[in-house]
Design goal:
The protein is built from 12 helices and 8 strands. With 330 residues, it is of the alpha/beta class. It has a single domain, classed as Alpha-Beta Barrel (TIM Barrel). It has an 8-stranded mixed β-sheet. The longest helix is centred in the N-terminal third of the chain and has 17 residues.
Length: 330
Amino acid sequence: MRLSNKIKSAAAMLKVKAFKKRVPLAVRWQLTNRCPNKCVYCDVWSQDSDCELSTAQIFTIIDSLREQGTQTVSFSGGEPLVRGDIGQILEYCRKKNISTSINSNGALVAQKIGQLRTIDLLKLSLDGPEEIHDRMANCKGSYRQVLRAAEIAKAKGIKTIFTTTLTKHNIAHLHHLLEVAEQFDTLVAFQPLKQLSKGLKDWEALMPPDKEYKQAIAGLIALKKGGNRRMRNSLDELGHIYHWPCYKKLECWAGKVFCMIGVRGELYPCDRLQYTVELPNCAAVGFKKAFASLPPVAACAGCGFCGTSELNFLLSLKPGIVGTINKIVS
């Protein structure tokens, strides 16, 4: 996140804490369901792909995001780089002084690198050594595409980090991921497997055994305490996800400080929950009205999504999170 956005975010967080105001500082935006990969822990690629917002609709929403105080937008999918207008979207955010990041599988980075010149952060999915990553992506050659994307981005001066979804297939290979992060002088964000409200029905088959999972996270905590600088996760957050899938209580700021925009423009406080009411659509009624009419977030088992839980820790004024503020970009 740019310095100006960080300063404005800090000021807005003080208002949120002091006056209980709602400010959509951070937004995650699912631009498309389309994706060349078919990852085993995701079925977004199998959903309707004829429902995307137009470039004009996206620009209108960005205008409103800026008016409402949004400082950073994380674009996801599917694979957001499949959109032919992705460069225009990123450039428009830059003109509005909104920091941008993209969650990508890396397949199209070489082809679209010229359109990424204004991006603040590229987040590449990396789920293990070559054989494991390719199997999880259901795409032979995907691992090499990710590393190639990281090389190209680094050569162009584009800040890049890796994100890893923890499953039974890669839980024993976290050291490899840290070595790759070291190779590219960057970070890796470890995130537990999480069933999305619209996700796979057999996701439990991907869950790592509890004992192996806790041993792996304990190992990461030990490395972090020992000075390893390749984890995006703070010690607070690592301690939090250690208890997955039954997290300890943490105040959640979904719908108050951050929210998610769906492919059709539907607005979620959090897209990892089921809702019994119709969600507002910011393409239909405008973002300001949609954000004001978001339903309250129901109690849930907790969240291990790195950017979200780190932001929750920050707003809870946890002392251990202070050193990671500069890494919070989504």
